[in-house]
Design goal:
This protein is an alpha/beta fold. The protein is built from 10 helices and 10 strands.
C-alpha cells in the first residue's frame, strides 16, 4: 500500500489525476486534498454537498488542541456509496494554508498510518509545486507530505511547453527529496496525453521514470471537476480505466522500492491514533472500478 503525492509545475491536471486514481484504484483509497491554494472537489465532483464546515483547515485547530487524530477521522467523507473511497476535503481559502505550517508533519504520519496499518492507498493532491532557492517553498507547498510519500508523482502534459516548464521543477523536487525525503529516486512522471510528445522522449529529456499515462478525455475530466447529477458507469470511462492501471503500477513500484530500501513501517504514535486506525481499517480485498 503506498502513499503517493501528486504535484505539477503548472496547471497540468493534478486534481483530476489524483481524484481519478482515488476513485479507480484496485484497493481502498483515501484522497487527501492538500493543495495550499485550496481544494476543488467539494464544489466540483462533490457538487457542494459539503461546505467549509468540514476539511483540512479544521485539523490545524485540532492539532493545537492535541486532538488531530479524532478530527482527522471526523472530517473524512465518502467518495463512494460503499465507503471504500475516502476523502479529506481541502482548504476553502488560500489564506488558511499558513495555519497548517505545524500540522503537515503530524498529518503526514497519520496518512502513513492509514496506508501501513489501515490498508488504504493514499493519494495526496499537493497542487502546483512552488519552488524557491534551495528547494520547495515551506508554506506554499505541503512540503512534509512530499517528504513522507513513498513516491512523488509529477504530472506532465505531453506538450513541449509542459515538458520545458516541468524540467526545473523536477530537478528542484529531486534535490528536495534527496535532502529531506526518501531520496531523489522517489520522483516519477504521470503523463496527460494532451499533445504529441512521446513518453520515451519525455523520459529522455527529464530522466525520470514514467509510471503511467492518462488520456485527454474532456468529458470525464469535466465530470471530475464539475460533477454531474447522474453518474456514468466508471467502466465506460477511458480516463478511469487508465487511472486504475496507473494506480496499480504506482502500488507495485512503491512496494518494490520500499522493500529494496528496507524502509520500516512507521509506528502508530499513540493509543488514540491506534483506535482511529482500527475503526477505519479497510477490508483486505480488491475494489471494483469506481468503488
Amino acid at each position: 500500500m503506498p502513499v503517493v503525492a501528486l504535484t505539477s509545475a503548472h496547471a497540468s491536471g493534478v486534481t483530476v489525476a489524483a481524484l481519478a486514481m482515488a476513485l479507480s484504484g484496485p484497493r481502498p483509497s483515501l484522497l487527501a486534498e492538500a493543495d495550499p491554494k485550496g481544494g476543488s472537489v467539494r464544489t466540483g465532483y462533490g457538487m457542494g454537498q459539503w461546505g467549509g464546515e468540514v476539511g483540512l483547515w479544521h485539523l490545524a485547530q485540532a492539532d493545537r488542541e492535541g486532538a488531530l487524530a479524532e478530527a482527522f477521522e471526523a472530517h473524512l467523507r465518502r467518495l463512494d456509496e460503499g465507503g471504500s473511497r475516502l476523502w479529506l476535503p481541502g482548504l476553502t481559502d488560500p489564506l488558511q494554508a499558513a495555519a497548517l505550517a505545524q500540522t503537515w508533519e503530524p498529518l503526514g504520519l497519520l496518512l502513513q498510518a492509514m496506508d501501513q496499518h489501515a490498508g488504504y492507498d493514499v493519494v495526496v493532491d499537493a497542487g502546483r509545486a512552488v519552488i524557491e532557492p534551495g528547494g520547495v517553498h515551506p508554506s506554499l507547498s505541503p512540503r512534509p507530505l512530499l517528504h513522507r510519500a513513498d513516491l512523488v508523482v509529477l504530472v506532465v502534459r505531453t506538450t513541449l511547453t509542459s515538458v520545458a516548464q516541468s524540467l526545473p521543477v523536477a530537478r528542484a523536487l529531486q534535490g528536495e527529496l534527496e535532502e529531506r525525503g526518501t531520496g531523489a529516486d522517489a520522483l516519477r512522471l504521470l503523463l496527460v496525453q494532451e499533445g504529441s510528445v512521446p513518453a520515451a522522449e519525455i523520459h529522455r529529456r527529464l530522466q525520470i521514470p514514467v509510471v503511467g499515462t492518462l488520456p485527454w478525455e474532456e468529458k470525464t475530466a469535466r465530470l471530475l471537476t464539475h460533477g454531474a447529477t447522474t453518474r456514468q458507469k466508471p467502466g465506460s470511462m477511458a480516463l478511469l480505466k487508465r487511472a486504475r492501471e496507473a494506480a496499480r503500477a504506482v502500488g507495485v513500484d512503491a512496494s518494490t522500492r520500499r522493500l529494496r530500501m528496507q524502509l520500516p513501517a512507521p509506528a502508530v504514535s499513540s493509543p488514540v491514533v491506534a483506535s482511529v486506525v482500527q475503526r477505519l481499517t479497510a477490508p483486505r480485498q480488491e475494489v471494483r472500478l469506481g468503488g
